[in-house]
Amino acid sequence: MHKTFRLIILGLFVAQSLVLYIIEGMIPVPFIAPGAKLGLANLITVIALYSLPRKRDVCLILFLRIMISTAFAGGINAFLYSAAGASFSLGCMVLLKKTGKFSIIGVSAAGGIFHNLGQVIIASLIVENIKIMLYLPILSIAGVGTGILIGITALFTLQHLTNLPLYQRLRKI
């Protein structure tokens, strides 16, 4: 039963992140930076990071979302950008959370910055031009803003999630 419950929870997290990814693709975002997004699917990553006891489960959720979303809505470049951004972002968020010195909002904001850093590094490698890094400050501002919004939403969601009887069981998977 324990393994079945874990698979159901992981499947729900993957499904929720995919739905948010699809919804985000439908929202026109009038950012000053072309290519900047809200990062709605990252909401599920942050919630999973703070609610699941095993960080490898968070990695699995993120990896499955990237694989499924690029299989349906992208090519190899989309996969490279997503994987690099997600790897940098999750690595940063795990390290900052582990220190215990940052709030969920700060961790999420840093994740937004590092997601953009990973993507800009991949972009500079693909086009073989380091000057693309000049785009990073603009993307970082957008990343901080969206990271703060995602962090606030995750904080609010987790505060309400702890009131559910299922949450204590979730912490034990």
TrEMBL record:
InterPro entries membership: Hpre_diP_synt_I, Hpre_diP_synth_I
Keyword Transmembrane: yes
Pfam families on file: Hpre_diP_synt_I (PF07456)
Gene3D superfamilies, A to Z: 1.10.1760.20
Keywords annotated in UniProt: Membrane, Transmembrane, Transmembrane helix
The keyword DNA-binding is annotated on this UniProt entry: no
TM segment ranges: 7-23, 29-50, 62-84, 104-127, 134-158
Protein name: Heptaprenyl diphosphate synthase
Organism expressing this protein natively: Megasphaera paucivorans
